Amino acid sequence: MGEELKEYRGQIDRIDDDLLRLLNQRAALARKIGHVKGESTVLRPEREAQILQRMVRNNPGPLPDQSITQLFVEIMSHCRALETQLCVAYLGPSGTFSQEAVEKRFGHAVLGKPCNSIDDVFHTVESGKANYGVVPVENSTEGAIGRTLDLLLQSHLKVCGEVMLPVHQCLISRAAGLSAIKRVFSHAQSLGQCQSWLNTHLPAAERIAAGSNTQAILLSLEKHADSAAIAGVMAAANYDVPVLAENIEDDPRNTTRFLVIGDQEVAPSGKDKTSLVMSAPNRSGAVYDLLAPLARHDVSMTRLESRPARSGIWEYVFFLDIEGHQLEPKVALALDELRQAAAFVKTLGSYPVTT
To answer: What is d(CA 67, CA 58) in angstroms, rounded to the nearest whole number?
Structure first.
């Protein structure tokens, strides 16, 4: 038994030595490519997406695809940092789900810049103080985040990517127990995601919306004897607050979709999505006329969201996600026809579908 273990461990040591050598070879090549390109844009989302797609496609196991994806996200993150460290703005403070989304997409070798609001994330990227921003756009339980949609309409920034983050909520408090809790702080979206659990376990507790779940923790700590917050495990660990209940979200599949925003047009990766916003003229059948070009050119729509326009009462804009890159022939033809039918069209960006 001892000799067998010794042999296996020897094999692992030799593989680790090979991995170390190959990782450094990869890093050196990545740095050389950066010098050859001579570009100010370090991140190429389409190239990174192609690498991840290829690794998943070629994965023989036993490591699951999710593990392979995250391993290579980290490898690319640290190789990229040899050239320059990216700065990514997100809704803070530290410990929010937005920070988790940043780490899932960019890895840990980036400089995270927490912001006080979604507006601040946009302003930080627009002013050049961050290379990219990560903002929540919709939740599978609570629907769209209206402020993000409004800012996408107003801003010149492009959508450069997306992140799908499973969201598991916890009740966090220094109270003696559930019976002692009189108020619960959390972001409005998180309160909505956990309302059935709250109705069952804390029906009399006051629910107070905060700017973020991490801010909710700080507010609850001011009155820790009878207050709690809803947030993630990472936030609880960051602030050393006990978790009284885990996975209290009403839907175990609860997922938040985040968008990566930046001043960059992303090239086709081979598996892309395009986001746009448009408005219809005020006449019968106008919305049908907007969607007809997509059907004629066999372009699938994956999302349609209406939002009140700022131009007048009972006027709306429509946010769409469609399959394909805006440079693909059939998508380009559909968008050309759509622009002729719509009162207003703005392409928010084309970007790789999340893996």
So the answer is: 13
